[in-house]
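So, does this match?
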Amino acid sequence: MNIKIALSKAESILKNSSVSTPALDAGVILCFVLGCEYVYILTHQEHELSLDEESKYFSLINLRAAGDPIQYLTGNKEFMSLNFKVNPSVLIPRPETEVLVEIILDYLKCNMHEKKLHILDMGTGSGCIAVSLAYYLKNCSVIASDISALALGVAYINAVKNKVEKKINFVQSNLFENLGNMRFDVIVSNPPYVPTEEISKLQNEIKKHEPLIALDGGEDGLKYYRRIIEEAPNHIARNGLLGFEVGFDQSSRVACLMEQRGFEEVKAFKDLSGIYRVVIGKYRI
């Protein structure tokens, strides 16, 4: 079977399973199997697949048709123009989290560019936030914490993959539990924020494959924001920054929680869809 026929067959399978982007997914998975760039499959349509390649390809196509996220099938996701390993131990990095990283980077480059920055990424998951900040900030050290040892393993691989492992320390911790008396110039987090009763309404790709512990934010979705905001003043430096990604209707409530705990200049920022997805504030006391 050549590339042209394989792609056509795979696209048909995915289309019949209501995959939203069947042609793109068929191509991405074939590139993964062949270890090639996308342009190759467009310019080498007559290339014959080996039996092993064909078998592996359609095995993955069938998994994709069954609802497995393509990022878990290929083990890869691009984030902030960097490549990240992902597996079912961690959430798949999303564009709205890039907005959080970009807001933090812009703020730091304008307000804290002259000092070495000590940063905490709480609930690091794949490490996409910690690794991106370490990569794009020249003078910083980062603590990447997570309750999951498996997630920390993935995050470490991604730090090595992007050559920033010397700038990041990985700590297994339930929120601030194992962080001692350390204080940070920046605390950033994308905590679980889906209300418990909303989990069942998520897309199957998410609720059946991504880790529940990284999704479930308690009864109203704000469980972890409350805990982080309450304890953050004990771990944040004077004039330090606290930044969150939030759910689509949570920005005003998270901002209110921050202001009640003494954070100032609290601001919310929109993502590319016009939804308030990032909340940041300074701590001066």
